[in-house]
Amino acid sequence: MMFARALLPEVMATLRHSPAVALLGPRQVGKTTLALAVAEALREECPSIYLDLESEADRAKLAQPELYLADHQDKLVILDEVHRAPGLLPVLRGLIDKARRAGRRHGQYLLLGSASVDLLKQSGESLAGRIAYLELAPLTPMETPGVAPDELWLRGGFPESLLAADSARSLRWRQDFIRTYLERDVAQFGPRIATEMLRRFWVMLAHHQGGLLNAAQFARNLGVDAKTVANYLDLLVDLMLVRRLAPWHANIGKRLVRSPKVYVRDSGLVHALLGIADKETLLAHPVLGASWETWVIETLLTAARRDTQAFFYRTAAGAEIDLLLEHADGSRWAIEVKRSLAPKLERGFHAACEDLQPAKKWVVYPGVERYRAAPDVEVLPLLDLAQALAAR
């Protein structure tokens, strides 16, 4: 089964306006499939060539990159796993500038990378003003019609995990994915880290899903210092495997929580890290609510425009909003996430809304109907709110 990725039109539009586009995302999320779909869609406008820099044969073609790429300056060149050849980026800068002088100002290179810190840094330094960044997240309900929402939540949004023949094979794929990242991929992107130590930290994050970051507590549990924990967390965030959700703060005369929330971004990886094999086990597990909240938040942030800023809001007095979205026009949406078919709003949500005066107040729940919980609060399914965000 092939899924139509919602990012496809944006990748095409960005290539029509920028010389280079970096498509970033964790391994196996579908970057190569999307890039080839882009190439096919743009075939009549511009031919393309695909090079996988993990292939020795393709790397050999770039032994003299200036010569090889100069021969293909009339094509869209797709470079997969571009972090494997960091010395290529200064070459691309020169070729892009040369093509600009010749009148070709966009659609030259599509770079695919696993959200490498080095890739971001080097492309920012070498291709400043010549590159646009797009992020491909795991599959969401908007991209998987016909897939039961709870199945997507349980297995997560990595295509191979979602399409596995049964739950056991899906879990095994995710466990192998985690092992591969720990034993092979992490070493490519950061300093040498003990595999078992990073695994323990990743599992701790899954148990702590959606909680406030307490680096000192993680450090004590791991037997390391807080700086080491910060380095571990930075690495997993840069690999797009973990999210730090920032607290909203301003001088409003309230004592605000200032620590970020942290969570493993893909719900399927949360369940694999915790050994949750099926829905029955998940429903009895303490991570149930936090896992569902994470899945909802990630779905909504994937659907939102790139200029939307995301926060949570919490005061020392207990006022709280699970997800606060600030749009480019300055308006705010307050979103509460409830894993209940009869959600009830707590006093803390109303108090937070009094503080912030959001333009919209939403409650996302696992039901299928939309209704008003109050004159200015609407309860609705996740897919409905995701579509409303995408349509803004």
SSE blueprint:
Layout: H1 8-15, E1 20-24, H2 31-41, E2 48-52, H3 56-61, H4 65-70, E3 76-80, H5 88-101, E4 109-113, H6 117-126, E5 131-135, H7 149-155, H8 159-162, H9 167-189, H10 195-207, E6 211-212, H11 215-222, H12 226-238, E7 242-245, E8 261-264, H13 267-273, H14 279-283, H15 288-303, E9 309-314, E10 320-326, E11 332-337, H16 347-356, E12 360-365, E13 371-374, E14 377-381, H17 382-390
Parallel strand pairs: 1-4, 1-5, 2-3, 3-4, 11-12, 12-14
Antiparallel strand pairs: 6-8, 7-8, 9-10, 10-11, 13-14
Helix pairs in contact: 1-2, 7-13, 9-13, 10-13, 11-12, 15-17
Account of the protein in words:
This protein is an alpha/beta fold and 392 residues long. The protein folds into 2 domains: 8-135, P-loop containing nucleotide triphosphate hydrolases (Rossmann fold, 3-Layer(aba) Sandwich), CATH 3.40.50.300; 149-390, Arc Repressor Mutant, subunit A (Orthogonal Bundle), CATH 1.10.10. Helices cover 43% and strands 18% of the residues. The chain is built from 17 helices and 14 strands. It has helices at 8-15, 31-41, 56-61, 65-70, 88-101, 117-126, 149-155, 159-162, 167-189, 195-207, 215-222, 226-238, 267-273, 279-283, 288-303, 347-356, 382-390, and strands at 20-24, 48-52, 76-80, 109-113, 131-135, 211-212, 242-245, 261-264, 309-314, 320-326, 332-337, 360-365, 371-374, 377-381. It has a 6-stranded mixed beta sheet with strand order 9-10-11-12-14-13. Helix 5 links the parallel strand 3 and strand 4 (109-113). Helix 9 (167-189) packs across helix 13, helix 11 (215-222) packs across helix 12 and helix 15 runs parallel beside helix 17. It is globular. The mean pLDDT is 91.
